Structure formats: structure tokens, C-alpha cells
Structure prediction request, 137 residues.
Amino acid sequence: MVIAAPAEQVWALARDFTGSWHSSVIVDSEIEGGLPPDQVGCVRSFSLTDGGDLREQLVGLSDTRREFSYRILDSPLPVSEYLATARFTPITTSGQTFGEWWVDFRVAAEDEEATVELVRGVFEAGLSDLARLTGSR
Prediction:
């Protein structure tokens, strides 16, 4: 998604692993053990607006590349080996940001289509939340 705000502004919000900026989907998020929300290895516990509870671990964060990666520890989703990355790249000609978010995971064939659509919706909502919070929507 192209976000009509500078990458530095978008990244200042997105690098907070509590996900408080992702309010259309995430509620009651906290970092376990009182660790900083940008410390690699920290674990966030949260609920989804639909009532599901998850735990995810931050496995990488780069301010230089404006990206973070995380894995799911506990989830109601029928997935395993879930590793996601989000990156926010400046579009130098316009001062906007290209936000991209991708994931690799394993899922049973019978659950694949529904799970892919659910995850896609979560990612799209998160990018839209960042656009809204930066005043670009």
C-alpha cells in the first residue's frame, strides 16, 4: 500500500511492536515481562477484535531498513512456522511510503484459502490503520 506520509513518520508508529497502531484488529496488547516494545525477543500478548488471543515474538527489527519480523507463538489460526515481515520504504519522488507486509506459514490444504484471506485482511487493515494515523486517509 502507498501511504501518503513520509517513511520516518510511518515507521515511528509501526516500530512499536505492541501494535497499538493496529487498532482496527488488535485490542488489549501488552509486551510480556515489561520489556521495551522494540527489543528483539520480546513477546506481545493480545486479543483480536473477533475475540481470538495470540502471542507473537519480535524476531527482528531494523531502523535502517524500517522493517520488523515476528513469529506466532500461540494462535487460534491453524498455522505453523508463521514468520511475517513488514517494511516501510520511502518513495523518494513523492515523499510517500510504500508499506509491504508478507508472511510465510504452513497450513493444511483444507484451511489454506480461508486462512490466507484472513491474514491478508489483517495486513490490509494494519496498513490502512497506519495511513489513517498519519493523516493520509
In short: The radius of gyration is 15 Å.
